[in-house]
Amino acid sequence: MNSKTPIFLTLAATFLSFTTSFGQKNSQSGEFNPKNDLLLVQFDCKTDVDDLHTVAALATLLTDSNYSTLNYHAIAGTYGIQEGLYVPPNDLFQLAFGNNWTDAHNKSEAAVEKVKLIVQATLNRQGDIWIAEAGQSDFTALLIKAIQKDLPQIKTAQRIHVVQHSDWNENSTSPERLQFVKENAHYQKIPDGNAVGNGTPGFRDPEFTSWKEEIKDPNLFKIWQLSTDLSNQYNGKDGRYNNEAVAAGGLDFSDLSEVCWILGLQDIRDTEHFFRLYAD
Questions:
Q1: Contact of 53 with 89, CB cutoff 8 Å
Q2: CA separation for the pair 69, 260 (Å, rounded)
Q3: Rounded (5°) CA angle 268-259-173
């Protein structure tokens, strides 16, 4: 028995090192497997400009060595039934994600077909799908229905995980589609990412205005610059939602709280803490 102890400790240390390097595992959100699973980050971009800051924050996170090989795909225009004008994000998505994103604005059916193929590839190699909903669940419902049609053997309630943090997003989803997602996916409602100290990171800070001093990477600087320029251009304009944190010159990437939850990074406290960890 004693002779096995060093081996056990070595294996345990190796396992802990792996889980720590990819963020602490969060038993509440399940086990995201970076080797097999796919992260979908879906942005409604209507009518709040906070999605633009979230795009820049996600790009910042992806530059970290622990996440540089993360299997992810971003989708723009996954809005629900809310009124108001769209915030055009295409230039920012292209700059932040290259070709690793899909435009669902005004063409949701084509977008569902494209994303479905990406999802199927992951499911076929026994990976799970994790959806961070920086918006509503309407697109998710269409995607799950398409998967069920093509892969009826897949138990979507076990293999597709949906994370939502916003009451407003839920209320702006078609009620029947929200109910469908809750019944056909592993649906998780987490504490709101707009607040600090509630169990998820709080990434809305009207007083954090020093991002230019924090970002050292020139490519990331361009992404944040475009993100804030577009936010200032569209915030509160033509009846769009007026994000007071953005209007004050601060940042709001509250939707990133869902990505942090999925990756087990819920111990990040706030905007300043995030930049301290990932801006260099």
A1: no
A2: 16
A3: 125
| Residue position matching structure tokens 């509160």 | 236
Cβ–Cβ contacts within 10 Å for residue 12, how many?
10
State in Å, rounded, how far the first CA of the chain is from the last one: 46
Select from 157, 155, 189 the least CA-distant residue to 28.
189
pLDDT tens-place string over residues 206-229? 999 999 999 999 999 999 999 999
What value does the mean pLDDT take over residues 84-105?
A: 98
List strands edge to edge, sheet with 38-43. 101-103, 72-76, 38-43, 129-134, 160-164, 186-189
Q: How far apart are CA 80 and CA 141, in angstroms?
A: 11
**How does pLDDT run across 152-178, given as a tens digit for each residue?**
999 999 999 999 999 999 999 999 999
Element (H, E) at 129: strand 129-134
In angstroms, what CA-CA distances link 84 with 42, 166, 237, 241? 18, 18, 10, 8
What angle do helix axes 138-150 and 175-184 make, rounded to 10 degrees?
A: 50
Q: Give tens-digit pLDDT for 42-78.
A: 999 999 999 999 999 999 999 999 999 999 999 999 9
